[in-house]
Amino acid sequence: MATFLYRLGRLAFRRRHFVALIWLALLTLAGVGAVSAPAAGNTSFSIPGTEAQKAFDLLEQRFPGASADGATARVVFKAPSGEKMTDAGNEATVEKTVEDLSRGSEVASVADPYTARAVSQDGTIAYASVRYKVSGMELEDSSRTALNEAAQQARDAGLTVEIGGDALQTAPQTGASEVIGIAVAAVVLVITFGSLLAAGLPLLTALVGVGIGVSTITALAHTLDLGSTTSILATMIGLAVGIDYALFIVSRYRAELAEGREREEAAGRAVGTAGSAVVFAGLTVVIALVGLSVVNIPMLTKMGLAAAGTVVIAVLIALTMIPALLGFAGRKVKPAGATGGLLRRGRPARQPDRPNMGTRWASFVVRRPVAVLLLGVLGLGAAAIPAASLELGLPDDGSQPVSTTQRRAYDLLSEGFGPGFNGPLMVVVDAKDSADPKASFTKVTEEIKGLKNVVTVTEAQPNKAGDTATVTVVPDSKPSSTATEDLVHAIRGAGGDIEAKTDAKVLVTGSTAMNIDVSQKLNDALLPYLALVVGLAFLLLIVVFRSVLVPLKAALGFLLSVLAALGAVVAVFQWGWLSGLMNVEETGPVMSMMPIFMVGVVFGLAMDYEVFLVTRMREAYVHGEKPGQAVVTGFRHGARVVTAAAVIMIAVFSGFIGSSESMVKMIGFGLAIAVFFDAFIVRMAIVPAVLALLGRRAWWLPGWLERALPDVDVEGTALHTEQPRHADPDERRELVQV
Predict the structure, then answer these.
(1) Which end of the chain has the smaller Cβ count within 10 Å, N or C?
(2) What is the 3-state secondary structure (H, E, C) of 620-654?
(3) Residues of the chain whose pLDDT is less than 70?
(4) pLDDT at 314
(5) Nearest to 480 by CA among 567, 414, 420, 406
(6) How many other CB atoms are found less than 10 A from the CB of residue 328?
(7) pLDDT digits over 603-618, tens only?
(8) How many CA atoms lie within 13 A of 244 on its CB side?
(9) Which DSSP letter does residue 510 get?
(10) What's the pTM?
(11) What is the pLDDT of residue 152?
């Protein structure tokens, strides 16, 4: 591995014009494809294997043209103070609005509030239900515009009008904070390298990689049914790993220069050593992202695959484009220990014999491993305590900011009709095999009316064939509450008894039931996913480190950091701690996919730091240093760079906290805090403490396994047999300052 990458790095350095041209051509091709590709709507949403999805599929068969999974909107009207919605003028305004809404080409039906009994008991609030032929993610912008215009006309007539439902669902916006995250990354790179040029290389290559990845996703969005959230995740992960991978190779290149090697040789050795770590770190991230497909949620699978593709591009760019750009930069990229003209005008950054901060910290940990280990574990354990109160759910209009029309419509419906009215349950009765379908429909209605937490049960609405009917159930609790979830399970439990007596099947669906099923599906998939991803990565790390205990320690440390991160997410988004600082207007259950998503992404990113930091220790140990000294050597060469990489990744992820989409905001915060815990507590404190305690046992590997494993030579042992190529006399004078 190291020898191949060494030759690749030298080739890219020599043929830099050709390499740069290839990547520029790929970026142009992807950009042209994105611009010329047909416009894609948002991705369709389905959850195979869930009862709610089975009910939707059944409705499509038995109620053709009814658009059971079509978008819905509730246009909620409130009369001015002292008036009623039944007043002649207000009723005329509503009738006109209903007429305007029904003209849309994608509109399947509009329910008049006065004929559908959709007026509150006190007469002050009414609503019109609009159902569309396509899902909210496929709805054309023209339909949303017509919906908003109709509501505005009613507002102009004096009514308070708000719109709820999924018809207004739009692509999330990340805002200026994403740019701020990149700006912070740029500052960190400048401080790390002391040069604008050296700092610009990782940023440039990361942006090129993300540009190719996101443009490709955009170009294929229509064909592969990819949604807007897919490109956001790819951008988030692609920027973070792209900057980090380039950072490690540039840093190793400067270290090789400081040892007196000429620039082409330094580029080859940087790619052969740090590049090997980049390859295996990238593989762990790809494994984690591709593994999301085991959950069997198409949207999550597409997000994972697209982000994994962006990571692969980031790895390839780091291995080829970085050495090519280093060739273009020439002597403007200074050796390690020397700064450029931007900082100290090329004078030494510190005295050559003075230990850097990484060396001093590692020496302290090696002397006090037990104290550092206990402090790190107890600190993460304390941060993980809120995770014991974790409540999972999917966001609804009640979790929207109070400034949105969806949230105001939610509140108006709760005021006029009760909180459960925002999440009605649709019960589908399949009586095709029943001897008396009508009796089955009646039996289902009566059974549901006798359950707790039920406010309203409508009469069964059969299809034309009379073998299937729908029943609408309004709970007494809000959609995201545990009481509503208990009611769904109670209806399904009663359905089992009904089927035994009447041969009629009872299925519960609707957006609320779908959210409950998605949460359950994600919970059920968490442990198998964790076993798959951690197991594969564990095997990969055994090959990298040629040790059993080091990968085991890496996995356990990851579990600590992800639990602590989940605890922080619960504290902010569920308990409301620091909610004002994070602009969280409404607390509630944590998004259902957050645990499994964090396990996947954070594991991959955590292994990045493990590989980059510990491979340096492994390299020093293989070359003859004692275990404790190898830990110090690893920190001397890698701590500054890993710290910079972690700060950059935290800055990039934190940039997404400013998103208007609660899911993106929560993911950005969760990943940022997880990287903080993992990089600065697990990898910088717990890892060296454990290695110091284990000593030589840390690198133990059974003889039979040693013989069975392939030798990938991540530490670059084979490169020491290469004929060293030292710098020319002019460059030697440049190195005197190091």
Answers:
(1) C
(2) HHHCCCCHHHHHHHHHHHHHHHHHHHHHHHHHHHH
(3) 39-45, 65-69, 136-137, 169-178, 181, 225, 227-229, 337-354, 395, 585, 660-661, 713-738
(4) 93
(5) 420
(6) 14
(7) 777 777 887 788 888 8
(8) 35
(9) S
(10) 0.77
(11) 93
